[in-house]
């Protein structure tokens, strides 16, 4: 529930920012004299579009002109004026909508990933594989197999942290569905066969 509230708060903070009035762009002239490579320093994080070609030589993006974060470059005689950081373009509304959708999608994916992480953590009695940055090696490995889809219990000795080390069956072994941990034993069912690492 806390994650849902936090995610809703993030969405509430980000979406208004996406709908804020756009920053006006500026025009920059960059010219390749005598066909030479020319770099024109400028903050391009707002994007760059060619607004007016000045040369008879062609200006083609990623061929005779381009940009990275801190500059526009031209070559092979391309001379042109470029709009830099012009958020006022006609696609601004669509860009904001797409950006908003991406943000919501990323937050949704993060929520699902956290839920999966929590669910996976629930398979353990003790989540102490990591201690002060040290990774505990498995104390032993237990092979447990559900042959003919039968329910099987396999005792283990260790701290109680168990995970699939190597799946042996074609059937996917999914915690809580066809395998789990209960009272110092691993149980498998419905065709799950695997080697389990016990920590």
Query: Spatial order of the strands in the main sheet?
Result: 1-6-3
End-to-end gap: 31 Å
* Rough outline: rod-shaped
Helix content estimate: 10-25%
SSE order, as H and E? Answer: HEEEEEEHEEEEEEEE
The structure class reads alpha+beta
Low-confidence stretches are 17-23, 88-93, 120-134
**Over the alpha carbons, how many angstroms does the gyration radius reach?**
29 Å
How would a textbook summarize the main sheet? 3 strands, antiparallel
Number of strands: 14
Estimate the mean pLDDT confidence: 76
Per DSSP, what share of the residues sits in E-state strands of 2 or more residues? 25-35%
Helical stretch tally: 2
What is the topological layout?
Blueprint: H1 2-18, E1 26-31, E2 38-41, E3 48-53, E4 65-68, E5 71-74, E6 79-84, H2 92-121, E7 130-131, E8 134-135, E9 140-145, E10 152-155, E11 162-167, E12 179-181, E13 185-188, E14 193-198
Antiparallel strand pairs: 1-6, 2-5, 3-6, 4-5, 7-8, 9-14, 10-13, 11-14, 12-13
């Amino acid at each position: 529930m806390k994650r849902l509230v936090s995610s809703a708060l993030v969405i509430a903070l980000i979406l208004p920012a996406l709908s804020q009035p756009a920053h006006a762009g500026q025009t920059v002239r960059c010219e390749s004299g005598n066909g030479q490579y020319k770099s024109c320093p400028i903050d391009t994080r707002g994007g760059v579009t060619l607004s007016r070609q000045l040369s008879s030589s062609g200006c083609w993006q990623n061929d005779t002109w381009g940009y990275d974060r801190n500059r526009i470059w031209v070559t092979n005689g391309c001379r042109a004026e470029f709009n830099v950081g012009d958020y006022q373009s006609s696609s601004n509304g669509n860009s904001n909508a797409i950006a908003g959708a991406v943000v919501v999608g990323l937050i949704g994916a993060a929520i699902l990933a956290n839920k999966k992480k929590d669910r996976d953590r629930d398979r353990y009695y003790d989540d102490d594989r990591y201690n002060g940055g040290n990774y505990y090696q498995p104390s032993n490995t237990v092979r447990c197999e559900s042959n003919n889809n039968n329910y099987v219990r396999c005792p283990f000795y260790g701290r109680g942290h168990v995970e699939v080390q190597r799946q042996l069956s074609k059937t996917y072994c999914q915690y809580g569905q066809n395998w789990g941990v209960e009272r110092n034993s691993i149980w498998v069912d419905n065709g799950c066969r695997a080697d389990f690492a016990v920590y």
